[in-house]
């Protein structure tokens, strides 16, 4: 099977797309990534990787006299048209797979122009990012384009049941939504390895994400119920509001009388996150929305139990009383109680951590993700029987 994966200027998603490509190639498929970016090797270059897939860089058309969002959308549609022209002769994929909404714009144009089936993975959708309060000047344009993409794709991939519901609200037919969680790099995220140093001999709770929608205010208030533990918050609010977010959380910590046990370390490179997970006794996840559940899966892969809100990808990945604890979203007291209970029971934490590693290795590997995608592609390419 020939598979064309399309991504465009979405750096956080590049590693995942590359892993999908590598695993599909390992299954024997002819896989090529088509990407649009303004830096790196010249557009048009073809790079063959040691993992068995090729990367093609496609140049965007010259900018037109539109606003920033409209200009970017037009450029990506132009990339799609160039891909359709390229596929009219020579190598042509059997199926096109757009990654993130940006890659999806190019993928939809290319697939329509070539008459090819299309799969779309968003990883996150704009409506969910809006609830998290993330700054994005193009958010309105993004949500509008995501509505178009859910209708253009033959299959839309969801990371969790909550995201599946979100996609159907955007317009995707329910029968066309496939639930396929993204994998985790179990070589990088594993129990063995270096860990960040502890401070003051305190037990440690780690939480990832900074901003109104990540629920760090809930955790700071819950920390009153967990004596002797520190809360380490990892993340970057982004934009000009970063300092305001940090100051607001610091003020909340002072009012809650836990300021000496709250530490905000800012952004951490993804390759160093395993060190922070391994340094924790518990990882806490309390966002308003969690379509993918990447943080709890990475933490569990490192052998760390998770206390999180029972929603989205968190509820999908964490098994209550087996790999951690799930509590009602927004319930600060229940969150504090669950954290205090786990902090006081080392044997239970170890048992939860062991079960968490087993769950990740059985369900959340990139090999499993690629196999599930392979089944979706094959279903799209299999002629449907016509009723007699």
Automatic annotation (TrEMBL):
GO molecular function: glycosyltransferase activity
Domain of life: Bacteria
UniProt entry keywords in alphabetical sequence: Glycosyltransferase, Transferase
Keyword Protease: no
Biological processes, Gene Ontology terms: carbohydrate derivative biosynthetic process
Domain Glycosyltransferase subfamily 4-like N-terminal: 14-183
Domain (Glycosyl transferase family) ranges: 210-356
Pfam family, one: Glycos_transf_1
UniProt KW Plastid keyword: no
Protein name in UniProt: Glycosyltransferase involved in cell wall biosynthesis
């Amino acid at each position: 099977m020939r598979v064309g994966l399309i991504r465009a200027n979405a750096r956080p998603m590049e590693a995942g797309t590359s892993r999908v490509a590598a695993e599909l190639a390992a299954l024997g498929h002819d896989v090529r990534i088509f990407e649009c970016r303004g830096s790196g090797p010249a557009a048009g270059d073809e790079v063959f990787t040691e993992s068995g897939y090729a990367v093609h860089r496609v140049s965007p058309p010259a900018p037109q006299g539109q606003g920033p969002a409209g200009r970017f959308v037009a450029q990506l549609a132009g990339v799609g048209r160039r891909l359709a022209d390229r596929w009219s002769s020579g190598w042509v994929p059997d199926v096109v797979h757009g990654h993130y909404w940006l890659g999806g714009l190019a993928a939809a144009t290319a697939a329509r122009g070539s008459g090819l089936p299309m799969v779309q993975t968003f990883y996150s959708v704009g409506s969910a990012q809006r609830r998290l309060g993330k700054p994005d000047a193009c958010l309105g344009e993004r949500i509008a384009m995501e509505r178009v993409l859910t209708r253009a794709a033959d299959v839309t991939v969801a990371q969790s049941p909550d995201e599946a519901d979100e996609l159907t609200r955007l317009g995707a037919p329910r029968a066309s939504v496939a639930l396929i969680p993204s994998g985790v790099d179990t070589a990088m995220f594993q129990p063995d390895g270096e860990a960040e140093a502890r401070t003051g001999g305190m037990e440690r709770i780690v939480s990832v994400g900074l901003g109104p929608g990540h629920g760090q205010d809930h955790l700071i208030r819950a920390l009153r119920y967990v004596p002797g533990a520190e809360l380490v918050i990892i993340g970057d609010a982004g934009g000009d509001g970063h300092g305001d977010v940090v100051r607001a959380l610091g003020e909340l910590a002072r009012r809650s009388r836990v300021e000496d046990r709250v530490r905000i370390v800012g952004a951490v490179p993804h390759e160093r996150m395993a060190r922070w997970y391994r340094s924790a006794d518990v990882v806490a996840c309390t966002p308003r929305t969690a379509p993918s559940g990447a943080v709890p899966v990475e933490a569990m892969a490192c052998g760390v139990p998770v206390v999180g809100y029972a929603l989205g990808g968190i509820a999908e990945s964490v098994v209550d009383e087996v790999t951690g604890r799930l509590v009602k979203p927004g319930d600060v007291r229940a969150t504090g109680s669950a954290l205090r209970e786990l902090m006081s029971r080392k044997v239970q934490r170890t048992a939860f951590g062991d079960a968490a590693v087993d769950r990740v290795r059985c369900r959340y590997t990139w090999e499993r993700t690629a196999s599930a995608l392979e089944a979706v592609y094959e279903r799209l390419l299999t002629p449907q029987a016509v009723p007699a």
